[in-house]
Recover the amino acids of this structure.
């Protein structure tokens, strides 16, 4: 764990952000994509045998399998099923509120000139769900529900096969709860290639969303343009801005910060937990709290590895410096554990999700509050937001014209601009309307 003064942060950040792309990884993934493009299902099965726990002859599975998994989940783990139902309800309502903000309209710009937009869902979307050490059940809900709420006709999951040839049964059950009625036992870069390009048995989709490992991320990056994606995700991260007041102050404040740092660090070694504090004595208290919690944490080995590799505490001088650092990091998750959290909100602009006040734990956003947990990472929150219904929608513009002075003026302006650019046929196209009106 590294502790820095705010004035030292700039040089530190520049150094760690200077790493180049992994060309060997990109070349490997590019080879997988091209094999799937040429060979289809045969390549998918070959890579599944090499990288996954099974290589099923047929990767697709029907709604009946997902329904059976959901029924089993409700019988055997009723408390988990109830928690998933509550989360699904919140996620659906939040997605509905988002969808309501994206509306069709038509506006008469000036007499005879009517401009508009139509908000149209893509026809087919896939949500990729990792199935490694910790199968991400919640990611099923976070992807499928916004897609269906957007109006996507076909929204299905893709997740790596387990030993029985199918994805994790909890993932299957969650998919049925979310509303998916079709899925594919596909993992890794070959899954993204199959979904983007289509094979003999896997239909090509319009959009692929959902988290994944570095191979999945690389495949999404390389295939963007042939298929729509949510974004290219990197390692997960959190930034906490604290002032020592959480939980009433003292050791309690240190425990709040330590608990949330560890919740991030336990993902994997590449996860990044960072903390901004106004005083070094608070930093020392957090280090003690981290040490205490690590002694009894089942995932301590992973969390400690993450903190050793990239854990960071920065001592900020004032609010202005803290905001500058936060916006430069542009974290996936940004927590405000300060006495005056609301005052910070209008000052901050770069984050995936903002958690306001000590009660707003990131774990609520991860699972059950309704906001999406698939968020921009690696500083991409500077220009992107989290997964939402908008990733499954297209905003299509329309133009309708009639007689009127506004139409005449726009037509004349278009002809003049076209001629100034040297595009004579454009100008003649406009002139044709002028002569025929």
């Amino acid at each position: 764990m590294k502790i820095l003064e705010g004035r030292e942060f700039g040089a530190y950040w520049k150094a760690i952000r200077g790493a180049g792309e992994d060309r060997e990884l990109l070349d490997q993934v590019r080879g997988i994509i091209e094999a799937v493009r040429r060979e289809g299902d045969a390549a998918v099965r070959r890579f599944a045998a090499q990288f996954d726990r099974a290589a099923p002859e047929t990767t697709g599975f029907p709604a009946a399998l997902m329904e059976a998994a959901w029924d089993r989940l409700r019988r055997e783990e009723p408390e988990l099923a109830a928690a998933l139902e509550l989360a699904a309800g919140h996620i659906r309502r939040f997605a509905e509120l988002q969808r309501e903000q994206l509306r069709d309209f038509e506006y008469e710009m000036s007499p005879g000139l009517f401009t508009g937009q139509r908000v149209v869902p893509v026809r087919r979307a896939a949500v990729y769900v990792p199935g490694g050490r910790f199968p991400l059940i919640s990611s099923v809900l976070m992807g499928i529900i916004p897609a269906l709420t957007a109006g996507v006709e076909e929204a299905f999951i893709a997740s790596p096969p387990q030993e029985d040839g199918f994805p994790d049964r909890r993932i299957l059950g969650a998919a049925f709860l979310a509303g998916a009625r079709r899925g594919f036992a596909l993992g890794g870069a070959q899954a993204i290639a199959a979904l983007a390009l289509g094979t003999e048995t896997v239909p090509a989709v319009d959009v692929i969303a959902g988290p994944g490992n570095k191979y999945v991320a690389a495949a999404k990056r390389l295939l963007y343009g042939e298929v729509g994606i949510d974004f290219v995700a990197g390692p997960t991260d959190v930034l906490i801005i604290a002032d020592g007041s959480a939980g009433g102050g003292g050791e309690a404040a240190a425990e709040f910060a330590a608990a949330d740092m560890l919740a991030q660090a336990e993902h994997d070694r590449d996860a990044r937990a960072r903390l901004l504090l106004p005083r070094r004595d608070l930093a020392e208290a957090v280090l003690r709290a981290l040490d205490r919690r690590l002694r009894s944490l089942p995932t301590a080995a992973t969390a400690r590895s993450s903190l050793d590799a990239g854990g960071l505490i920065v001592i900020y001088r004032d609010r202005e410096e803290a905001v500058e650092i936060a916006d430069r990091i542009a974290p996936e998750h940004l927590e405000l554990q300060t006495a005056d959290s609301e005052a910070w909100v209008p000052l901050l602009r770069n984050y995936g999700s903002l958690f306001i006040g000590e009660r707003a734990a990131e774990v609520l956003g991860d699972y059950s509050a309704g906001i999406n947990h698939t968020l921009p990472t690696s500083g991409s929150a500077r220009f992107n937001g989290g997964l939402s219904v908008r990733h499954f929608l297209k905003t299509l513009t329309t133009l309708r014209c009639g007689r009127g002075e506004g139409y005449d003026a726009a037509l004349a302006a278009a002809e003049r601009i076209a001629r100034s650019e040297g595009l004579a046929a454009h100008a003649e196209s406009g002139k044709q309307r002028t002569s025929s009106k």
About this structure: The longest strand covers residues 113-121.
